[in-house]
Amino acid sequence: DTGVSQNxxxxxxxxxxxxxxRCDPISEHNRLYWYRQTLGQGPEFLxxxxxxxxxxxxxxxxxxxxxxxxxxxxxxxxxxRTEQGDSAMYLCxxxxxxxxxxxxxxxxxxxLLVL
Amino acid sequence: GESVGLHLPxxxxxxxxxxxxxxxxxNSASDYFIWYKQxxxxxxxFIIDIRSNMDKRQGQRVTVLLNKTxxxxxxxxAATQPGDSAVYFCADGYQGGKLIxxxxxxxxxxx
Lengths: 115, 111
Prior knowledge:
The structure holds 2 protein chains of 2 kinds.
Chain A: E1 5-7, E2 10-13, E3 19-24, E4 31-37, E5 44-50, E6 53-57, E7 65-68, E8 75-79, E9 88-95, E10 105-106, E11 110-114
Parallel strand pairs in A: 2-11
Antiparallel strand pairs in A: 1-3, 3-8, 4-5, 4-9, 5-6, 7-8, 9-10, 9-11
Chain B: E1 4-6, E2 10-14, E3 19-25, E4 32-38, E5 45-51, E6 56-58, E7 62-67, E8 72-77, E9 86-92, E10 100-101, E11 105-110
Parallel strand pairs in B: 2-11
Antiparallel strand pairs in B: 1-3, 3-8, 4-5, 4-9, 6-7, 7-8, 9-10, 9-11
């Protein structure tokens, strides 16, 4: 399978704990995005990388959230001191912009439940 | 700020009929749009995209129409099948990378 992969697929944690999610993009895709999706809503942008550089962060991304893409390949999203409001699906997407088009391909997501 | 919205939260069609899902956007400078399909428990799946220099684009059983005058786009699915049941999102790709999604329309196909 050469699509975007995310691990874990599900995570249950207690409030106050730290969690880390991993995303492996499609090979040779230089852009990688993180989105958050709550029930009944469309995905909301969190942050994105071009290669290893983090180019934009949403105002939704509090100081408890941090993302990295150290070698320009896989990325991790860490949430510190989780809160119940962090419960959501965290989606990763990757792309390789060409000729003014940038199709983002999504992974299956990591569903987080904070108790 | 910019927003993307869909006209109907749910749509129910008979198997074999054509489906039309509508979407409005607010940013007149938007120049790239994408339709995604999301099945329960899965990530959004790319269906088709369109740039603003086009009014229409066709794929396999799907057609996207873009009306820049009224800032409206639609996704037409021909001969809808039970496997088409999902939530459909339009997304605005103007922001130079990040996508702005609408809330989605849930398509239900009755056998």
